[in-house]
Amino acid sequence: MSVSQEKLPGALKPPNSPLEYLIGWICILPNEYYEAIKMFDERYDTTHIVRGRGDKNSYDVGRIGNHLVVMNCPACGTSGQIRATKIASDMKSTFPAIRFVFLVGIGGASPFRRDVRLGDVVLGAKVLPYMQGRQTDHGFQITGREGVPPPILQTAITRLGAQLRQGLNLQKAIEMTSPNAIERPETDNLYKASYIHELGARAVSR
């Protein structure tokens, strides 16, 4: 029995059919996966999963809010466009009713005019295919064609923006968050947006 098929302690009975899962969440790096699984409100036992032909992914399944979500567990030492494309294709062979697949990554702080820092969530309204752009010393250059998400997702982004403009219910958020759930470092290294990191060099505050 593989790790992905072991029964989770206290796991709930899963939905009866893979057709009930409509959302896919792809993790490419283990560090992304470690944080992503914390988003589940409920996690289900995976022993019921019958994989599609050729699907070698390992999955976590559960509920986030009102949505049933499938999340892959990434293998160590793999990354890149080919890997992500294969994960998405195999995921849909096992869970054929999936409507949307999200690739969720973790980025570092990026101090700029609109200060983006660790812990912020960035939603993109457009999609730039992998290897269709490049970062240079003079800025980001687009070498391919931008893709646009389905209208239903664009509408969802608009609704999220409306909620932010109306103001968040901070008191409710505080009540739902355990004081011990978040650990912050005592010190943090911040860099100017124009700072160029040398590959393999040790990070130094600038």
Automatic annotation (TrEMBL):
Native organism: Penicillium angulare
Gene3D superfamilies: Nucleoside phosphorylase domain (3.40.50.1580)
Protein name per its UniProtKB record: Nucleoside phosphorylase domain-containing protein
Organismal lineage: Eukaryota, Fungi, Dikarya, Ascomycota, Pezizomycotina
Gene Ontology molecular function, alphabetical: catalytic activity
Alphabetized PANTHER family for the sequence: AAA+ ATPASE DOMAIN-CONTAINING PROTEIN-RELATED, ATP/GTP-BINDING PROTEIN-RELATED
Superkingdom of origin: Eukaryota
SUPFAM superfamilies hit by this protein: Purine and uridine phosphorylases
GO biological process: nucleoside metabolic process
